[in-house]
Amino acid sequence: EDIGLDRLIGADPDAAIDGRRLLRAVCDGRTFVELGHRDGLIVALARIGGRAIGVLASDSAAMSGVLDAAALSKATLLVQFCARHDLPVVTLADSPGVLPDGPALVALGNLVQAWSDCPVAVIGLISRRVIGAAAAALLPLVAANRTIFHWPGARVGLLRETVHPPGGQQIAPRHTRRALVAALRSVGGTRA
Hints:
Layout: H1 19-26, E1 32-38, E2 41-48, E3 51-58, H2 69-85, E4 89-95, H3 102-116, E5 121-131, H4 134-138, E6 145-150, E7 155-157, E8 169-170, H5 176-186
Parallel strand pairs: 3-4, 4-5, 5-6, 5-7, 6-8
Antiparallel strand pairs: 1-2, 2-3
Helix pairs in contact: 2-3
């Protein structure tokens, strides 16, 4: 348990969440290998419960967590890598959406295609909110084996004005690592 996670979201629901702090709190040895950071998204490899995984973690400290073409392209490469190497993907989602421009929408399409071709488990955590196309990027409905957790007060929706509680299992922030470890143990694949 990490009671510090209970304080990660403060009194201001729109304040930035440090994606690296959340990632360190759930990873074995509080470490991960960052493969790239694009505004709004941390792309990494890590271990949780002894299991090697790929990670896509929102970073609302950069661009408020908005996903741009570079972030979505980097995410696509990680999803493809994990599919080739039978590594589950953990997404730590807190994003107000995708940048509404042509390159970002093309990159989003490529990421959705990568998710649909990806046979590995996807375990998602919604810490605060996932709005619009960010849900397709970070909580893919097309994933073959998907588990979703969310913290109290988390919201999803097409627009900020139409958010609602997400599906999946609600967990207390302090129990996040425990829930991720249990979910990873329940899925098949290798223990690289």
